[in-house]
Amino acid sequence: MQDDIKKACDILRKGGIILYPTDTIWGIGCDATNEEAVKRIYDLKQRDDTKSMLVLMDNPAKLQTYVKEVPDIAWDLIDLADKPLTIIYDGAKNLAPNLIAPDGSIGIRITAETFSMELCRQFRKPIVSTSANISGDPSPSSFSEIGQTIKEGVDYIVTYRQKEQTKAKPSGIVKLGKDGSIKIIRK
Fold first, then answer.
1. H or E segment at 97?
2. What is the CA radius of gyration of the chain?
3. pLDDT digits (tens, 9 = 90+) for 154-163
4. What EC number(s) does this enzyme carry (predicted)?
5. Is pLDDT above 80 for 88?
6. Domains in the chain, ordered, with CATH?
């Protein structure tokens, strides 16, 4: 695993894109602060850049670097989540402009899965995480379901967990309102 993390970090630092296991499904990732790398993922997925992608972080303490104001309820949601939870925050900052939604929001998930957490920790910046499929196609629930176009379009494919056949599921998604409201986007 450590060799994969080192290689993936090297690719991310050079502006490359990776295919990697996350706390949910396999994802396509890049440095979330690198506008060119983010564009490459949109191009690979054949996805309109107005459709936001989320980012992974290893530690909630880093949220304040990338969100103007973290609502108090967010800390409770992170602490109480019993499965992967993506939270959409208003006021994204210090991220690639083409990653931030038109309304200024960004989806962030604090990962607790061993590989993605250690990758984020060693990379020291948020990492884009978007499903490893062409936009509109079903999301693959295991590495074996990822299409050849995606595999050929990335700069590095992590070997860790490729043989797992457990059917992974996407995260839950909630959007926090400026008024303290919580809107459930996906359970």
1. none
2. 15
3. 999 999 988 8
4. 2.7.7.87
5. yes
6. 2-186 (3.90.870.10)
